[in-house]
């Protein structure tokens, strides 16, 4: 993985083993787990053994020069493990593209996610979605934030029956309900899915997300890796942090994603960085199991 990222122009980024706990307390919903190991430093500050690498990288850079900064990492993180049901030191690899992120940079990151899976196993798939599709649909329906959070959870679990009940309770139009159910139930190769998605586009935000997926699909086809990329609307993340393409990678024999990533411009905005970003992490502990 290191060789793959270096060959594509990514520079290794080293981060400290611990950060001030406040960094994680403010961004708990961005973390894989909200549980964080803490200790009090000699100066009285509450510190934490890092449960995540992305937050540390974003905190420690200043991408204000208008350029594109490409970093990869191979770090230990400390979080609860599904294997031991307790905290564990876990090796995590991944990369971040921060600064000015154009369509080529975005497609390159998705390509490297595919190549990362390919280096682990030939029997893999990458499932992709776009937060702009679901956010645009919710905006078109004028759903309240609490309902949006509930529907986001139902989309994640593909609970079509409950989605219909929630839409009926909110007196959503048939058009909105049908579009949401059709998208939530969709699982197709990306190129085939785009044909199904086009008639479901209801506003400019959804159109922008759709156009971005079309452009990425074309670039991935140019890389020759589009065959193992599927569209799955249930791949969603937190609206507070993610606002573009999101994806998860799977390999045969492991019942959970071994790779996860997406576009997270909103995280940088929350941290006062004023730049764009996309990246992913490979969960090596799941491969060990």
List keywords for this structure.
289 residues; alpha+beta; three-stranded antiparallel sheet
Give the distance, in angstroms, between the N- and C-terminal Cα atoms.
19 Å
The strands making up the biggest β-sheet line up spatially as: 1-5-6-12-11-10-7-9-8
The overall average pLDDT, rounded, is 90
Number-wise, the strands total 12
Cα gyration radius (Å): 19 Å
Q: Approximately what portion of the residues adopt beta-strand conformation?
A: 15-25%
Structure description:
With 289 residues, the chain is of the alpha+beta class. Helices cover 41% and strands 25% of the residues. The protein contains 12 helices and 12 strands. The chain has helices spanning 2-7, 21-25, 54-59, 103-120, 131-141, 145-156, 160-169, 174-184, 190-197, 204-223, 265-270, 284-288, and strands at 11-12, 18-20, 38-40, 46-49, 68-80, 87-99, 124-130, 187-189, 229-232, 245-251, 259-263, 276-283. α4 (103-120) packs across α10 (204-223), α6 (145-156) packs antiparallel against α7 (160-169) and α7 packs antiparallel against α8 (174-184). The model has no long low-confidence stretch (mean pLDDT 90).
List the helices and strands and how they pair.
Blueprint: H1 2-7, E1 11-12, E2 18-20, H2 21-25, E3 38-40, E4 46-49, H3 54-59, E5 68-80, E6 87-99, H4 103-120, E7 124-130, H5 131-141, H6 145-156, H7 160-169, H8 174-184, E8 187-189, H9 190-197, H10 204-223, E9 229-232, E10 245-251, E11 259-263, H11 265-270, E12 276-283, H12 284-288
Parallel strand pairs: 1-5, 7-9
Antiparallel strand pairs: 2-4, 3-4, 5-6, 6-12, 7-10, 8-9, 10-11, 11-12
Helix pairs in contact: 4-10, 5-10, 6-7, 7-8, 9-10
């Amino acid at each position: 993985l290191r060789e793959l990222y270096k060959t594509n122009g990514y520079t290794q980024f080293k981060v400290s083993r611990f950060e001030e706990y406040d960094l994680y307390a403010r961004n708990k919903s961005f973390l894989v787990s909200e549980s964080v190991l803490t200790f009090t430093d000699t100066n009285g500050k509450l510190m934490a053994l890092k449960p995540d690498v992305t937050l540390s990288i974003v905190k420690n850079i200043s991408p204000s020069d208008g350029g594109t900064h490409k970093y990869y990492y191979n770090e230990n993180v400390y979080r609860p493990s599904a294997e031991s049901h307790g905290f564990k030191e876990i090796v995590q690899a991944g990369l971040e593209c921060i600064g000015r992120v154009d369509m080529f940079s975005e497609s390159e990151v998705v390509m490297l996610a595919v190549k990362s899976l390919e280096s682990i196993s030939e029997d893999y798939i990458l499932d992709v979605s776009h937060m702009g599709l679901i956010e645009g649909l919710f905006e078109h329906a004028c759903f309240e934030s609490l309902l949006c959070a509930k529907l986001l959870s139902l989309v994640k679990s593909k609970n079509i029956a409950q989605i219909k009940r929630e839409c009926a309770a909110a007196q959503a139009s048939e058009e909105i309900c049908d579009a949401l159910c059709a998208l939530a139930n969709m699982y197709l190769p990306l190129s085939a899915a785009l044909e199904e998605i086009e008639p479901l586009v209801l506003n400019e935000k959804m159109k922008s997300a759709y156009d971005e997926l079309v452009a990425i699909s074309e670039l991935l086809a140019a890389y020759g890796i589009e065959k193992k990329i599927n569209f799955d609307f249930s791949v969603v993340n937190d609206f507070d942090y993610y606002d573009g393409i999101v994806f998860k990678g799977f390999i045969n024999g492991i019942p959970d994603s071994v790779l996860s990533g997406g576009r997270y411009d909103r995280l940088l905005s929350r941290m006062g960085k004023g730049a764009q970003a996309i990246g992913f992490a490979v969960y090596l502990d799941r491969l060990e199991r």
